[in-house]
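pinging the channel bc i need a second pair of eyes. not urgent but kinda urgent?? the chain im working w is below, pasted from the shared doc
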Amino acid sequence: MFGLKSVLLNCGEWQIKSPHSSKRGRESSASSEGSSLDINQDIIFPFSIRAKNCPSGMLLMWGLQEVSDNLLVFTVATKETEGFKRFRRSAQVFNYNLKVLGLGEEWHGREDQRIAGGQKIRHLKSALEAYAEKEDLVILFTESYDVIFASGPAEVLKKFKQAKSKVVFSSETLIYPDRRLEARYPVVQEGKRFLGSGGFIGYAPYLRQLVADWQGLDSESDQLFYTNVFLDPEKRKAINITLDHRCRIFQNLNGALDEVALKFENGQVRVRNLAFDTLPVVIHGNGPTKLQLNYLGNYIPQSWTFETGCTVCKEGLKNLSSLKEDSLPLTVVGIFIEQPTPFLDQFFKRLQLLRYPKKKIHLFIHNHEEHHLPQVSSFVEKYGQEYRSLKVMGPEDHLENAAARHLCMNLCKQNPACEYYFSLDAEVVLKNPDTLQILMEQNKFVIAPLVSRIGKLWSNFWGAVNPDGYYARSEDYRDIVQRRRIGLWNVPYVSSVYLVKGSILRSQLAQLDLFHHGKLDADMALCHNIREQVGAGKQENLSLVPKLTVYPVSPKIRPTPKVSPSLNFTHVPNYKLYPKISPNEDPIHSRVDR
C-alpha cells in the first residue's frame, strides 16, 4: 500500500518529475522507494514532486512512500539519546514500521561495554513470539544509537529477496569478539567474511528459530551468540543464514572507511561502497567510527543536498520571539581574555549591543592580561550595573585558562535556574547582535556559530579529528568555511564561541571537570569530554557522539550555489593531518554583517 509522506499546500501548480537515468549495470542512487519506476535490479526510484511557485529547490514530497505491511523494524534502545532521535528520524523519512524495545529500562552491561548485548537478544526473542506464525513477514533488526537509514523498505525487501536466504546478517572485515574463530568461518570468493550482529534481516519464523536457544545473561555478548549459531554448519543450513558479503543492505563502517563515499545524484544523497559498487541501505557506525557516521548523517537521509540545501535547519526550533523579556532564558555569559587582544574596546561595544536583556545575564569576565586592565575596568564602570550579576577575575587571581573556564561554567551548572551557558573569547568579532538568541532558538545541547578569519580557511570548528584527537580536515571543510555549503553541521570540535544548555551541564556532564583530559588543551578537552559523555550514557559502545553543532548565524550569507553536474562523490573523511594553528595569529571575524 502507498501513502503520501508529506505535502506542502498552497504553493501553486504541481510539477512531477521522475529521475530517469540511463540503465546501468551498477546500482543507481535513490533516497526513497515506492514508485513503479523499476530502473534496474537493485533500486526503485521515487517521483520528485515540486510546486512551481514554491521556494526554489524545496522538495515537497519524497515520492510515493510505501507503507510496507511486510517489513517490520525492531531495535533496542533504553534511552532517547541524540543518536536514537537521528535514527528514528531517518526511519520516519522513509516510512519504516519501527518497533522500539526496552525504552526506559536500565542497561545491563559489563564494565567493559564491548562485551554486552544479551539484553537485546532477550527483548528480540520476546517480541518475536507475537509474529512466529507470520511466514511472509520480514523483520529487520538493527542498532539505533549509531545507525541511519539511507533508503526505504522497498529497496530493503528487494535486496533481501534477491539474497535467496531466510536470514541475512551484515558482514565485516574485522572478526570480533574471538579471533580464534576465524578458521571456522566459511571462505568467500568476494566480499567481507565475518558476521556483524549490528544488523540482520529475515523471515519472522526463522528469526524466532535463530534466537530460540538463547538463555544467556543480559551482560553476555550478542555478537558471540550469533557468531556461534552461524558457525554451526547444521544450524546455518537449517535456518538458511548467509552474510551480506557485498554490503548491499548493511554497511558497517569499522574497517571500511576507505571503501565508503557520499554520492550526490539527482537531488539525492547516498552512501556508495566503492569496493563493491553497491548502495547500502542501513549505515552502521560501529566501533570507533562514530565521528564518521556523524559526518554522513550531516547529509543522509536528505539532510543536505546541493539542490535543497539544509532540510533539517528548521526542525525542533524553540520560538523565543513571542516571549516577554522576563520569560527569556537566564544565561551565564563567560568572556575570556586569555591573550593580548587588539581592539578590545570594540569587542566590549559589540558585547553591549547584543540584543538580549542584560537582567537575564550573569556576566563573568576572566582577564589574563595586565595590559587590558584599563579596558576591563572601563567597561565594568559603565555597564556593570546593567547585568543581573557581574564577576571579574584578573591577572592577580592567577587562574589558568582551563580553571577560569571551569569556574565560569560552574556558575551555570550549580544554578538550577540557569538555562544556558554562553562562552565568548575576546578575539571573536560577532557582528550579528542577535547571535545569542538565534543560537538558543536552534534548541541544541551544544551549538556554535560559524566564525572564520576573513579570506582564510581558519575557523572555530574542525570537520574531523585524527585518532589522537587533533585536527584533521574533512572533505567538506573548505566548502563549509567558505559558505558554499550552509547548514547545521554535526562536528567533533568547536571553540572560541559556543552555547551549552544548562540542563545537560547538570545531568550527563554534572560530575566532570570538562576542561581537563590528559594533555589536551582546554577547548579540546571540553569537546572530548562532551563527545564521550553525552549520548546513550554508559550503556554501550554504540552511542552517538553528541552534536557539537556549527551554525551560520547571519541570514545574509550568500546562498548555496547550484551544481550543474548530476553526479558528485565525496569521501568520508579519512584523516588528512594538518598542524594545529595557533590562536594567537589574528582575531577571528564573522564573515558578514547581519
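so The CA atoms of residues 132 and 205 lie 5 Å apart. and The two ends are 48 Å apart (CA to CA). — does that match what u expected or am i reading it wrong
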